[in-house]
Amino acid sequence: MPNALKLALMSAALLVAVDAWGQISTLATCTRSANLLACVDADGNAYSVNTVGSTIYLRGFEAAGKRYWAQTNSRYGQLTFFTGIASDGETWVGYNRRVGWTTINRFSSSGGSSARFTCSRVAGC
Fold first, then answer.
1. Which residue of 13, 15, 58, 71 is surrounded by the most CB atoms within 10 Å?
2. Which of 61, 19, 63 lies closest to 71, judged by CA?
3. Are 15 and 23 in contact (CB under 8 A)?
4. CATH for the stretch 3-120
5. What is the mean pLDDT, run by run of 10 residues, along the chain of 125 residues?
6. What is the pLDDT of residue 6?
């Protein structure tokens, strides 16, 4: 699975599971405002997360594949649906469902990738 998709899914899972914008990995340099988080890592990958109401917009650049991507997450209570597209035409859809301290994540992409994984605040992913 391309790194951009992994980064988008993990970013979404992090936002949903932890609900803490300030706890981003030290592997990336981030700038934050009230609604926007923008990060760049040591490999040149970049992404931003913007919130508008219950909708989260993610945009990024994957340095290795030299492709741009965008993802939109729509939250309905404990359920978040997401759709994304990359500059090479790959698309993906999925959802995150929060159950207590656990988040159940499922996605599939036009590139043939699909997965289901569970993340916990205690045990991680």
1. 71
2. 61
3. no
4. 2.40.128
5. 52 45 64 93 95 95 96 96 97 96 96 94 88
6. 54
Tokens of 41: 């890592």
In the block, tokens 């359920």 appear at 79
List, in order, residues 6 or more apart from 34 with CB less than 8 Å away.
none
Rg over alpha carbons for the chain, rounded to the nearest Å, is 14
Strand partners, 49: 37, 58
The answer to whether residues 117 and 123 touch, using CB atoms and an 8 Å cutoff, is: no
SS (H, E, C) 42-101: CCCCEEEEEEECCEEEEEEEECCCCEEEEEEEEEECCEEEEEEEECCCCEEEEEEEEECC
Task: Report the distance separating Cα 87 and Cα 122, nearest Å.
Answer: 36
pLDDT of residue 49: 96
What's 125's DSSP letter? -
State the DSSP H helix or E strand holding residue 3, giving kind and residue range, or none if neither. helix 3-18
Q: How far separated are the first and last CA of the chain, in Å rounded?
A: 17
Which pLDDT score, from 0 to 100, does residue 9 have? 52
